[in-house]
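Hi everyone,

Forwarding the result from last night's run.
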Amino acid sequence: MLDCVIIGGGPAGLNAALVMGRTGRKTILFDEDKPRNRVTKESHGFITQDGVKPSEFKKRARTDVQKYPSVSIKEERVEIIEKASGVFRIQTKGGTDYMAKKVLLATGLRDVLPEIPGIQNVYGTSVFSCPFCDGWEMRGKALAVIAENERAFHMGKLLSNWSGDVMVFTNGYQVLDEEKDILARQHVTVVEEKIEVKSKGGQLTSIRLQNGQEIKREAGIVVTDLVQSAPFAEQLGCEITPNGGIKVDSFGRTTVEGVYACGDTSLSTPSQLVIAAAEGNKAAAGVIMDLVEAAFLLEA
């Protein structure tokens, strides 16, 4: 019987595994190795790790975790998680079953890009999803915000922190009203025509409008839709927030006893390495506290 199974080997899951290891609790971390940041060349905003390649960060993190003998890392896909009599059965794609007292979901989110010709060619190289992660590298350039919903207003304002030349492209959607005037007062232009993204070798060169006009742009931000990467939270009956995240308390406890979640699950903060790692730490602490509490209740 395992104390905990962690699903997902990103910064949240790995930091949770580290905390579990340092308590000596028998834990398996399952990692399918399909991280959301696989298109990212560098990660920023994490003190002592600024500019680290995601692959290098993962390598270092695994080395840290593997110092603790109670934790195993398995590169397997989990297919089924079921709860019965307070215990969880975890089945992998290979058909192997594991039993665990607790399950910690760190499966993260998946970006769904808008259906705009050419957007795939620049995502992760010159067009990104988080200005806090990549804004510094874009500073002073001719920037584009590509957004098909009301978040165009927020992102247009935010990106102006890094450049005085920001244009918002809504790809034919009329999602802003008086917000256009507010943006214009800070020299942020809104373009509502259908667009195509032009690039060379992954580098954004221009935004082509439906009327044939091309507007030179050098980098930018695209607002993506975010969906849960795995169906386990809903399958287990965890409450989902209105914005699609998993509802958790301050220690990662979901609304289902014994199930915890961390990382890019709440959709409430900027998606950054340091935040995901911190949430993994807190969720693992929640698991340990509940395991200890359960032991004392059994003795009472």
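The two ends are 22 Å apart (CA to CA).

Cheers,
N.
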